[in-house]
Design goal:
With 99 residues, the protein is mainly alpha-helical. It contains two helices and two strands; from the N terminus they run αββα. β1 and β2 form a beta hairpin. The longest helix is centred in the C-terminal third of the chain and has 38 residues, at 51-88. It is rod-shaped.
């Protein structure tokens, strides 16, 4: 509408790029953004069809990073359990003189 006092209003528009406070610019430097309401989005889209394939693909791609740690951990665990079992065995020489 018509306003006689245009000083602060003009200054606000220049600071915010011609838009009011709280409004987003729709086309800023040639970048167009689109949003969708959370009520229109499907949160479980592709979980059972694309999810397992994506999970396997990502884990195979990450294998060089976590694979060596898993292998070293498994070998250390096997060594520890074998050593424990070896130490739990009885020595027959200790019982040679028993009657």
């Amino acid at each position: 509408g018509w306003c006689l006092h245009k000083g602060p209003q003009t200054q606000k528009n220049n600071i915010m790029g011609g838009h009011g406070f709280g409004t987003l610019v729709r086309n800023s430097r040639g970048i167009m953004t689109f949003t969708m309401s959370p009520f229109r989005q499907n949160a479980m889209a592709g979980v059972f069809t694309k999810g397992p394939v994506k999970f396997i693909r990502e884990k195979v791609a990450d294998l060089p990073f976590y694979g060596p740690g898993l292998i070293c951990g498994a070998l250390l665990f096997k060594y520890g359990t074998d050593k424990f079992e070896e130490n739990m065995r009885k020595n027959p020489a200790d019982y040679a003189n028993d009657e």
